[in-house]
Design goal:
Elements lengths: L8 E2 L15 E5 L1 H5 L3 H9 L8 E4 L28 H8 L3 E7 L2 E3 L3 H9 L12 H5 L5 H5 L10 E6 L7 E6 L6 E3 L5 H16 L4 E5 L16 H16 L3 E4 L5 H8 L4 E4 L2 H11 L3 H9 L4 E3 L7 E2 L15 H14 L3 H5 L11 E2 L3 H4 L4 H13 L3 E5 H4 L6 H7 L12 H8 L2 H15 L6 E7 L2 E8 L12 E8 L4 E8 L2 E6 H14 L1
Parallel strand pairs: 2-3, 2-15, 3-4, 4-9, 9-10, 10-11, 11-12, 12-15
Antiparallel strand pairs: 1-16, 5-8, 6-7, 13-14, 16-17, 17-18, 18-19, 19-20
């Protein structure tokens, strides 16, 4: 891997012009109730007031009933409804009139407590909903080969099948092994059946009717199963995703595919979809700051898809598989680098992340480290701002998770109460707690950084990145409008980080003039204001 690499590329996402979203957008990722302390109206008031002018859009994490289920809304009982504790579709519609709204389409499964599955439990094959759900027998027949079962790609340590007795309201109940890729309360859908296709189309139409513009296809990589395969990201999966994308486009929406996997898989998927996540960015930013070496980060930003959503944190943990080696080839980091990265996170969080990761807690995913990004950086305010600056200067639509926006420490009390590892990074705020969090200098400095990034005219033009003599440079340049004089200089914005000291500066030049921001001064200004308040 070379130390110095440079690339000039255009950041235009590969999407239909009829559905295009501004590639320079900054969006918030949040649970409605966990940030606002209330419902959809309270969240909109928050966006319009205390977070005013920071975000162009918002990814609303699952708002379907129950929002407090086993997987925080990712186990929907009714995917076409809004949990009444948050409001209703009219409130979503109102929010979408002011912001680009993304919603989750949970394509792989539905709650075992849904009316449809409970009807199957009661009536078995006589249920009108029986064909909606995927069983072991549908894929493997009556005699599943042990080697074929072993070949299934597993996101969790337990079996991907759950025996459930159905036909309980009939004289002859019997037990069937249902596919449960994630938890026993999340029953996999047979997305290739007529019932499965109709179910997904119903959700798409409900989204379109309420001005949803972006759809996050949750767990789409697991949706198609074939005996003898890994049952993950098969050729048929690409076809399935392409059809969903086509259906969404017909309704005026775009799709984001959520898949954790080898970085070459992300590159391949990006060529066939509207957007992919840049899940490699979070571990690579941490590696850069821990090692004071941006070689791996520069290499990735050289080859990474440009039709991406870039993140440092989400409602899930910090992905490791996204930078690891796989069947596709070497990873972005070596095994020893990954081991050192994980151990440094555990050290920086004073062992808290270890309590929430892997077998230590009730985790769906073993390939993620559960920890807030702020805690992963030992709650170092300067390092945290540098990390966010790297994110804000990286290509793609930038999404900032609500816990990250507020530089949240690990939610250890919540973890202790629920025993769910990912809850360490899913804190609850009330209006008072939100106000308190926003008074912290690191939060105020981050919001000032977001505001600055929104004003830089060069962002969205041509991007280049390099590391030279211990300095990481991330540069955006945009050619002036056609009616400008030929000698008019290009708009530019550059982030320079001296890696040895993690001292960062932003320089810009455009039609409004030139400017410079020294990140340590930005933080110090807000620290001084707090001290004198």
């Amino acid at each position: 891997m070379r130390r110095d690499e440079r690339v000039l590329t255009n950041q235009e996402p590969i999407v239909s012009k009829h559905h295009r979203i501004n590639p320079t957008e900054i969006q918030l990722i949040t649970y409605i109730d966990r940030l606002s302390g209330g419902g959809i109206t309270a969240l909109q008031q928050c966006l319009d007031a205390s977070l005013t002018s920071l975000f162009d859009g918002v990814h609303l994490l699952p708002f379907y009933p129950p929002i407090d289920g086993e997987d925080a809304g990712f186990d929907p009982i009714d995917h076409t409804m809004v949990d009444q504790r948050l409001g209703d579709w009219s409130h979503i519609n109102q929010l979408a009139s002011r912001y680009t709204v993304m919603a989750d389409m949970i394509v792989n499964h539905v709650s075992a407590q849904s009316d449809a599955f409970l009807d199957v439990v009661a009536h078995g094959e006589n249920s009108a909903h029986h064909a909606l759900f995927l069983t072991k027998q549908k894929v493997f027949g009556h005699n599943a080969d042990a080697a074929a079962i072993q070949a299934i790609y597993r996101p969790r340590p337990t079996s991907c099948f759950t025996p459930i007795q159905i036909g309980q309201a009939t004289p002859s109940p019997y037990t069937v092994d249902f596919w449960t890729t994630f938890t026993a309360n999340q029953i996999d859908i047979d997305v290739e059946s007529a019932a499965g296709r109709a179910y997904l189309q119903l959700i798409l139409q409900r989204f379109a009717d309420n001005n949803i513009r972006l759809i996050r296809l949750d767990a789409a990589g697991y949706a198609i199963k074939r005996a003898g395969s890994r049952c993950f990201m098969l050729p048929e999966t690409f076809d399935f995703i392409a059809k969903l994308r086509e259906d969404a486009h017909q309704l005026g929406m775009q799709t984001l595919v959520e898949i954790h996997g080898h970085h070459q898989t992300q590159i391949a998927i990006a060529k066939q979809v509207d957007y992919v996540y840049d899940f490699a960015l979070p571990p690579l930013v941490l590696h850069t700051l821990f090692r004071r070496d941006a070689s791996a980060l520069v290499h990735w930003l050289t080859i990474a898809p440009r039709n991406c959503i870039n993140v440092l944190d989400t409602h899930d943990g910090i992905g490791i598989i996204d930078v690891a080696a796989g069947a596709e080839g070497p990873g972005l980091l070596s095994d020893s680098d990954i081991d050192a990265l994980v151990e440094q996170i555990h050290h920086n969080s004073q062992g808290q992340s270890r309590q929430a990761t892997g077998h230590a807690a009730n985790n769906v995913d073993l390939y993620q480290v559960n920890c807030t990004f702020y805690a992963a950086l030992a709650e170092d305010d300067n390092a945290y701002l540098v990390a966010r600056a790297i994110q804000l200067f990286s290509p793609g639509i930038c999404q900032i998770y609500y816990a990250g926006l507020l530089a949240a420490p690990n939610a250890m009390a919540l973890l202790a109460r629920t025993g769910v590892g990912r809850d360490i990074n899913r804190p609850y705020y009330t209006a008072d707690l939100l106000q308190q969090a926003q008074q912290r200098p690191v939060v105020q400095a981050l919001q000032a950084l977001i505001t600055l990034r929104r004003q830089l005219k060069a962002i969205g033009g041509e991007f280049s990145v390099q590391q030279s003599h211990g300095v990481l440079s991330m540069l955006w340049q945009r050619q002036p409008s056609q009616d400008a004089h030929t000698d008019t200089p290009w708009d530019s914005a550059e982030l320079r980080i001296t890696l040895s000291s993690l001292s960062a500066d932003i320089y810009w030049q455009d039609s409004s003039g030139q400017g410079h921001c020294h990140l340590p001064d930005l933080l110090a200004t807000h620290q001084t204001r707090q001290a004198t308040a």
